């Protein structure tokens, strides 16, 4: 079992494409929770994020043989999860999103802000007020600790655009937290 933990993602992809079903099981075990968490940060619904991760796995399994650089599996797969999450957010109505935002804002406003947990809550609220692209950048950079280069590949944007979005997200957060 310890030997399997040291197998790279690229090796597992190559083994799965060659017919080793156990390699896929290891990939799923390694990445399913990461995919759920990534989807959750975008859709803000645990059940939907699990569905998105499951749908993403179906597409990943169907298309894994087309992956030309198996060592890039993580970024490739995260891009699939990311796109499916964005597709879902586009499908929901704007009215529902406004209602949810109102409920969160109202409940946050009722909490006095004096201790560290409340500061964290204020930061979370400020992040939810960012645009979707800014929220994604903040999440990938600070939560998953991806480099700007990796973020650019995951989001299919230039590194300069990733830097710009991160800068503007930080500035927006500063403004919101000073209020």
TrEMBL record:
Residues 121-173 form the RNA polymerase sigma factor 70 region 4 type domain. One of its GO terms (molecular function) is DNA binding. Belongs to the sigma-70 factor family. ECF subfamily. The keyword Transcription applies. NCBIfam families: sigma70-ECF. This is Sigma-24 (FecI-like) protein. Gene3D superfamilies: 1.10.1740.10, Winged helix-like DNA-binding domain superfamily/Winged helix DNA-binding domain (1.10.10.10). It comes from Kordia algicida OT-1. The keyword Transcription applies. PANTHER family: RNA POLYMERASE ECF-TYPE SIGMA FACTO (PTHR43133), RNA POLYMERASE SIGMA FACTOR SIGV (PTHR43133:SF60). Keywords: Sigma factor, Transcription, Transcription regulation. GO terms for biological process: DNA-templated transcription initiation. It comes from the Bacteria. Residues 27-91 form the RNA polymerase sigma-70 region domain.
